[in-house]
Amino acid sequence: MSEKIVIFSTCGSADEAANIARRLVEARLAACVTVIPGARSFYRWKGALEEAGEWLLMIKSRSDLFERLRNELTTLHSYEVPELLAVPVVHGSAEYLAWLDSELAEEAG
């Protein structure tokens, strides 16, 4: 298993998704952020069943950058409680994982 992670988050607008994606890549906290439009979420919030159209972010990063990434995403995000779920990358092509590493900030100390 590598130290690489994929983080999932959602946004309420295309502009917000693009802004967050751009800022995370510029800060080298993410090597790549894929924005997927057309997500539809169903969830319970403050006692009520909700339904919302959203944009899904697939954020490719590394586990040692998670806290910095979380802080940046939370600052930029409009949601009171943004979705932020990290899953480990178990396997990947050596070339892609090397590229991913080359695009990220140096390890957090």
Helices and strands: which structural class?
A: alpha+beta
Number of strands: 4
Q: Assign an overall shape.
A: elongated
Detail the poorly predicted runs: none
Strand order of the largest sheet: 2-3-1-4
Main sheet overview: 4 strands, antiparallel
Mean pLDDT equals 94
* CATH architecture call: 2-Layer Sandwich
CA distance, first residue to last residue: 21 Å
Number of helices: 3
Number of domains: 1
Rounded radius of gyration (Å) = 14 Å
Determine the fraction of residues in helical runs and give it as a percent range.
25-40%
Oligomer: single chain
CATH fold annotation? Alpha-Beta Plaits
CATH class value: Alpha Beta
Q: What is the N-to-C succession of helices and strands? A: EHEEHEH
Beta-strand content estimate? 35-45%
Descriptive account of the structure:
With about 110 residues, the chain is an alpha+beta fold. It has one domain (about 5-100): 2-Layer Sandwich (Alpha-Beta Plaits), CATH 3.30.70. The protein contains three helices and four strands; from the N terminus they run βαββαβα. Strands 2-3-1-4 form a four-stranded antiparallel β-sheet. α1 (about 15-25) runs antiparallel to α2. The longest helix has 13 residues, at about 15-25. It is elongated. The two termini are about 20 Å apart. The mean pLDDT is about 95.
Which secondary structure elements does this structure contain, and how are they paired or packed?
Layout: E1 4-11, H1 14-26, E2 32-45, E3 48-62, H2 66-76, E4 85-88, H3 94-102
Antiparallel strand pairs: 1-3, 1-4, 2-3
Helix pairs in contact: 1-2
